[in-house]
Amino acid sequence: MFRLTSLPFKTIHRTASTVASSSGRAQLLQRRDDDVVITFAKRTAMGRAKKGQFKDVPVDELLHALFKATLDKTKLNPASIDDICVGTCHPPSPLYVSRAAALAAGIPESVPISTVNRLCSSGLMAISLGVAVGAESMSLNPRPTPVVADAVSANPQARDCIQPMGWTSEMVAQTYDISRQKQDEYALTSHTRAVKALSDYPHEIRGNVVSVDDTIRSNVSAEGLAALKPSFPEWGSASTTAGNASGVGDGAALCILTTRARAEAEGFDILAKFVGTAIVGVEPRHMGIAPIYAIPKVLEQTGLNQQDIDVYEINEAFASQFAYCAEQLMIPMDRINPNGGSIALTHPLGMTGVRQVVTGLEELRRRNGDFLCTSMCVGSGLGAAGIFVNERRS
């Protein structure tokens, strides 16, 4: 029986980081029976919030379709699943709806499930042994306005950490002098790359096969971006627009993880090895710059350096923060989001952490590279990053 034996997420993180930091790249490329490996990684297409193909589809229905498609594709005995973790942010009663979706898909009542909410990094946080999912319907569950007590909001950082994300974009642009022109240039790169890399992600929803992201715009130009009005004229330099910020959207993504020994014993393909993650905190009003700190931290923990990474998937919450991160990190742009990022694709909060892994591993396979680093800024002033090793070398 294919057991996806569970291990607490923090234990995986400590074990992977401790081993890697002592030996670095060569150590990570070695294969051990107790490695945590990914045997399956897929996503649904994404939909534009309130206007797109999933505007009326709740999170439980997205999860149900993804669970069913996964079981059908992998032929995995659902009773052999030891644990499921779903990263999702804003649906009410997330554990109830996730559990219901799993049961309806044919996963037996003996399989436990949990949900995790660390905002934009929720999907990455869900990645541990077992079935890891990221899902969000921003059409039906938009970001609620946080409300805190007067005694809490009297603290300036506490007040900053609950502000709208558009405000944080403007604070980054203003503080670090990121011009509107520069933001539009980075946005155009994202849009152009996404159009060239447009792929099919077929899943059946309500009897129809949905295959293509309806969020990608094929006619974006520098002139069109420059003509857009500011989305937040009341804040900062008013340089954030609908064209240089990530869209709100809907979708789901999934990875199956187990030990190498079990995957080999059961004859499952191994796509990649999961090494570990790092989490950081930053000034809440400058939330977007967190990858500058999260990426070096995860590299140090794993004994890698920046040049070891073949592909970076750094979430494009806003062009303001993405431009600053890319330039401060000094990573060649051909290694960052080569298939476009969230500015073009959209950013369903809970989905993104897993979506980046699916996208990044496919690009690693195409490049015949070794290492993927994913990273994102996280609402309230956090950041996260993860390291994965390609095992589909030609």
UniProtKB/TrEMBL annotation:
The keyword Acyltransferase applies. Residues 36-260 form the Thiolase N-terminal domain. Residues 270-388 form the Thiolase C-terminal domain. The active site is at C120, H347, C377. GO terms for cellular component: peroxisome. Transmembrane segments: none annotated. It catalyses: an acyl-CoA + acetyl-CoA = a 3-oxoacyl-CoA + CoA. One of its GO terms (molecular function) is acetyl-CoA C-acyltransferase activity. GO terms for biological process: fatty acid beta-oxidation; phenylacetate catabolic process. Keywords: Acyltransferase, Transferase. The keyword Acyltransferase applies. Pathway: Lipid metabolism; fatty acid metabolism. SUPFAM superfamilies: Thiolase-like. Gene3D superfamilies: 3.40.47.10. NCBIfam families: AcCoA-C-Actrans (TIGR01930). Belongs to the thiolase-like superfamily. Thiolase family. This is 3-ketoacyl-CoA thiolase. It comes from Multifurca ochricompacta. The lineage of its organism: Eukaryota, Fungi, Dikarya, Basidiomycota, Agaricomycotina.
